[in-house]
Amino acid sequence: MASQLKRPVRLSARDREALIRLITTGVHPASSIRRAQVLLELDASVGEPDPKEVIAARLGVSGEMLRLVAKRFAETGGDALATVSRRKRDLPPVPSPVTGEVEARLIALACSAPPAGYARWSLRLLEKHVELTEGIPNLDHSTIGRVVKKRNCVLI
After folding, report:
1. What is the pLDDT of residues 34-58, one digit of tens each?
2. pTM of the model
3. Integer Cα distance of 42 and 2 in angstroms
4. Tell me: the pLDDT tens digits for 90-106?
5. Residue 132: which residues within 8 A CB-CB, separation 6 or more?
């Protein structure tokens, strides 16, 4: 119960209605519904909430989930709908090494004549030549294959 005292959840009447509507109507992700149920159970504006062990057992979640939902509610500034919805990622975790210039140079290489001794380009042969080419980052054959397929380039 100490975590509930650290971050008390107080919902407005409008937030309670929105959460109840989210739980009872429409099609919503199960994680959003579960977080909404946790928020409604932790709400101290309608009375003293039950101990977290009782709430966790009733909802079938862990005490840690109760703590995390209360923490997220505090982080969002008391916005109930932002608490139950999924966070949007700002940027991809790793920027793609394939930029427009890299893609253009890769396609130009794939459309050129294959090296002596080879009848056509293969993805692994392109991978070897990309490693030797200046200005193109080292790409594996699967990445090269995605670029070639995206541009409908036929390896000759």
Report:
1. 999 999 999 988 888 889 899 999 9
2. 0.59
3. 13
4. 777 888 889 999 999 99
5. none
